[in-house]
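Practice problem: predict the structure.
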Amino acid sequence: MEEILVLVDELDNIKGFDTKENCHLGNGKLHRGFVIFLFDENNRILIQKRSDQKLIYNGFWDVSVASHPLKKQDKIETYEEAGKRRLGEELGIYEDVPT
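Answer:
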């Protein structure tokens, strides 16, 4: 299933929607995105190595989680909903994480 991202202006006002690929190729398009930093009890940060199959920055080291809120049918994910989804998908973390 193709991921549809939320296009925004500089103030995060929704301006439309486009595919993840179109948002990242060439000069790209301004869209919603987020990162999550996870720290352990010793304040060490969890980093991940990006898959060699990723469209951009493949094989690079990255933050704990980086992704986008998606447009799903008639609903647009909030940043929090998208963060919870990606914590589960990427790291198997399904319980609430302290912020």
